[in-house]
Amino acid sequence: MGVGPVLSFVTKLDKTDLAAELKWLPELEVKNRLEGDYFWFKLGLVY
Hints:
It is a single chain. The protein is built from no helices and three strands. The chain is an all-beta fold and 47 residues long. The protein has one domain. A hairpin with a 2-residue loop joins strand 1 and strand 2.
């Protein structure tokens, strides 16, 4: 199980929409496997 914050940013560039998202997910109560934190960065463009 993991719980963490998410930062999102959306803007319009001329005729293109730009979206960015950053996530941090620290794991809680890990058993029988390696414990760690997950980081994601997503970037999207829509024409």
